[in-house]
Amino acid sequence: MADDLRQQLKDLVVRVLMLEGVAPADIETEGRLFGGGLGLDSVDALELSIHVEEQFGVRMPEDETAKEAWRTIESIAQYIETHR
Q1: Listed residue (36, 40, 34) closest to 19, CA to CA
Q2: Is the whole model's pTM more than 0.85, yes or no?
Q3: Which residues of the chain are modeled with pLDDT < 50?
Q4: What are residue 43's phi and psi, to 5 degrees?
């Protein structure tokens, strides 16, 4: 089930952000999503946040904990698992 959540998140990132040339399997679970890694930005975070909240029924943080929660697929998954 935990791996399933991580796969769903990878699929969501690729689908929602329409990442060209990136397959869900290309996204490392522990790889950085913002800055380095995939190089996502704050607009991407907002878009993802809306879809994560809709799909998983969890309110994603917007305060100082947001940066840590959005760091990797793993950190998003852990946040969802903790706050479901």
Answers
A1: 40
A2: yes
A3: none
A4: -65, -40
